[in-house]
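New to this. Look over this protein:
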Amino acid sequence: MTRGLNKVMLIGRLGQEPEMRYTPSGRPLTKFQLATNRSWKSADGEKKTETEWFNVVAWGKLAEICNQYLSKGQQVYIEGRLHTRQWQDEEGSNHSSVEVIAQEMLMLNSKSEEQDSESKEGILSGDEYPF
């Protein structure tokens, strides 16, 4: 039997405040952008940095948790899967977008830590609340 694997693990910082909304059926979803940085030295010894942006979508309980606890600039670990969304606009042009569907989220620093440098971590998933 052949198996497939679609798994993504990212550590980055939120580029904006999370945006939460509800589907017509009442299911919560939260979207945010996550920036990851990669650094290396070129052949001539010059340090280079590249930023990659990811669109992240969380559903259900995890969506509510992300909306409540995450903020712009905060560092997080996201584990999930890639999903390609396709749609057609009013002019009939086809578009596609690759999103990370979050299944686990780990706060690598909290809102209070951003301000007063306390060392604090929290593990949150779609299956559990932090308290």
